[in-house]
Amino acid sequence: MHTYLPYMNFAKCAKVLEPAELRESIETVVKVFDVLHETPGVRITHTRRHPAVALWRGHETWLHLYGATLLEESPRVKSAWRLAAEENLAKHLDWFTSGSFSMEPPLWLGEERFHDFQRAALMYRDPDAYCPKFPGTKFRGEDLYG
């Protein structure tokens, strides 16, 4: 369960992601909304404390913007799957009219060390695809924190 954020700019994130990571990120957006909004019929007990949920808790406005931006780029992934993802994301729009949301950006958004770690995670996941996209980014864990 990952929302890959190699850059602060969501559109730039969407464009750099390979189709597998783009799809995984969109699926994670829906899962995180399911957990945060306790969607009926969705088993969420094992994911309440997941780092991706903690990352976005209190920032649903930004999570929705991230998901919508990824969906704009998603014609690169299967269309039937894309329609289902759009429907799943749309079902979480009711929170927007509830007034119980924050427009404040997450503290980590724009924090270069955070985005550098996200780039490194992608490089570790698929070195052939991502190392050329992120030249100069170290991707061994000890280099990130040393």
Blueprint (SSEs and pairs):
Layout: H1 10-16, H2 19-36, H3 51-56, H4 60-73, H5 79-90, H6 94-98, H7 112-125, H8 127-130, H9 141-145
Helix pairs in contact: 1-4, 2-4, 4-5
Mean pLDDT: 82
Largest sheet: none
Elements, N to C (H/E): HHHHHHHHH
Low-confidence segments, ≥5 residues, pLDDT <50? Answer: 142-146
* Class per helix and strand makeup: mainly alpha
Overall description:
Residues 142-146 have low confidence and may be disordered. By secondary structure, this protein is mainly α. It is globular, with a radius of gyration of 15 Å. The protein has one domain. Helix content is 58%, strand content 0%. The protein is built from 9 helices and no strands.
Keywords:
146 residues, mainly alpha, 9 helices, 58% helix, disordered C terminus
Summarize the structure.
By secondary structure, the chain is an all-alpha fold.
